[in-house]
Protein 1
Amino acid sequence: MEKIYRYFVQPQIDVRTQSIFGYELLLKQWTEAGWRVPASFLQVDLAVMSRLLVATTKILGLKVQYVSVNVNREQLMDTQMVQAILQSQKQLYPAKLTVELTEETSAKTFADTAVIPQLRRFVEHGMQVSLDDVGTGNNDYQSIRDFLPLASEMKFALQNFRVGIQDPQIQEKLRVWHAISREYDQRSILEGIETADGAALSDRFGIPLRQGYYYGKLELLRLAGDPLDFTQLTS
């Protein structure tokens, strides 16, 4: 059976204007049980993902200021994926494609010294770089320090913490990373906001850019020729 993938979009909200300023693209696979996140994005054929990214961004042009796509290091260094990213930026103009650098592990390893020139290339082509899931797992300050001058955005994910958001340690982490984003003149996005408590936390720290189910759920972005049953969305 052919594997079918589609990007879903989730809005990113600016509460100062009560408007959508961007969309994050999140890849899902069609299964007998409905749409599911792939067990590993490294198992997704990069040629398929590249074509899908180009087709998806073609639809989103002129709708928002930013469209974000998650890219791990192996994808970032793949020639097909790089060309798809460059083509996507051309289609989105004047909106900007934001490359969210994730820390998904893979069989291949790429040193920072190899990754940085690729990120710089994207910036030179009018794109932006986002540092995803800061403060989580191995994404500490030392591991991303060399990427900070190239990044325009930093994302802090509440959903990555199992304890409640009222935990003082989480709030201290958020305070530190928000201060780092201001130091480098970056956008700071708080994602994984699912309740009014998360929104209140954003208010308390003065973070107007937000993402999460509290503000908007994932929606399938259909492509021309998609069958009707693709409208099903199973959580």
Note: The helical segments are 46-60, 73-76, 79-92, 112-124, 141-144, 168-183, 196-205.
Protein 2
Amino acid sequence: MVAPQVGHYVFARDDGQPLPFIPGQFIQVHFAYADGTATRRSYSLATIPDPVKGPDDLVEIAVSYVPGGAATALFEGLEIGDSINATGPFGRFCLMPNDNNQRYLLIGTGTGITPYRAMLPLLEKAIAERNVQVVLLFGARNPAELLYGDEFREFANRHPDNFRFLPCFSRELPAPDSPHAHPDVRHGYVQQFLPELSPDPETDIAYLCGNPDMVDTCAEALRETGLLPRQIRREKYVSSK
């Protein structure tokens, strides 16, 4: 468990081969309902690829638990060594090799933060090679639900001039003596603090991932600032049973 209602799962391919993927892509897990009807769920890859070694055989995902959900039952019933059926990777919610922007705005809620974890090595490379600026605006209800928060904070500490981590807590703020308590913590929803970042079509590319209402609201706000559709990359996460 990496949050009260989120599990982190690590799999290995049964053929022992690596899974080449571009950070931001997802896999689809295939299973069946109790009546035998086939279905599937999509999960962004949380794996952090080694920039030197390249892809390995580990496949990491974060799964939100939905009470009564068939996918939740599947994952909660797994034991160490069990297998799942999955295909992929798929998707284009990725950092593009020809990006020449000055800043990335990464906005996410819940497990929508997962692809940004996988992007960290590429962001580090962009920081080193072209001094890109990155802002990660992450919405959670409380500090316990700040998925991979320690990793993002550690990355921000390593790159204080280029990476800014803004956790937004809609319900409960961290205690004053908590490691999550710092000047960039905000109380509210991510869409409330988007204007604070002063999105600029001359410099920015924005990524939106998570709750569909948040994605739609932020996308509209970004369009109003002048960002073009190609500068707004979106991925909606819908909790499904």
Note: The longest strand covers residues 133-140.
